[in-house]
Fold Transcriptional regulator.
Amino acid sequence: MDVKPLRYFTEVARHNSFTRAAEALHVAQPAVSMAIRKLEAELELTLFHRQDRQVSLTDEGVRLLTHAERILRAVDDARLEMEELRGLSRGEVRVGIPSMLGSYYFPPILMAFRHRHPNLNLSVVEAGTGSLQQMLEQSELDLAVIVAEEVPEALEARSFLREQMMVAVARDHPFARQLDVALSDFFDQELVMFPRGYFHRRVVDRLAGASGRTPDIGFETSLLPLIKSIVKQGFGISTLLAMVLQDDPDLVALPFSDPVWLDLSIAWRRDGYLSRANRAFVDFVLEQTGTVES
């Protein structure tokens, strides 16, 4: 089976359109249609429903899509490894980083890595850990930072950072005079939260579930500066990593009475090929945190 029709097939399945698939592939639309017809003839199966310009996968197409994506990942991994062995690739690192770490922890690490490896291309995506994990599993990223306690079987991971989640309040908030904050008191307050899919929100939802409480979320945003601004103005409280709060004089950081710690890991696909460029990045991150790779 030729690999090119499988690429065409997965793009049509992704876009539910022959025309948009052709645009994504930078080929003529008739070439995509012809490739799909030949693939269907070879398999003696109909892979797409075609009705009134609406395209959707048949049951057989759904089954093939799983195999096609796995085959294409393997082909891409093999091509990358062979290029590296021939010395044809300068190397690229595509890494996903959650918002808080992308803003406060990783900038100096990224700059230092680029200084050490000036010939490597570095592409950084900032999003919630849920989205990053999905992008990693779909090979849209090479590496991603995820919460260590939630590493799925499909991923390999190395822990590199343990950081405490702190309660963030304005300086004139009643909590500001306390030494710590009980979970029950925290959930009595109106909260400012990241949307679902961010590890910040996962922590709060997990704590709420364990306490039998429903969070009172007054504001929900993925913009970290906006969260801090809302808290400073007294319109709610939040919980953020200690590193985010340590240099902000307008916010008070308080630990939970029962401290909440997060173990963060850098992860990649277990069944994928980790290029030399990506291995160099993993080693560099572990080196910066004093973690020894085993």
Remarks:
- The chain has three domains: 3-86, 92-161+264-288, 163-260.
- The CA atoms of residues 191 and 217 lie 5 Å apart.
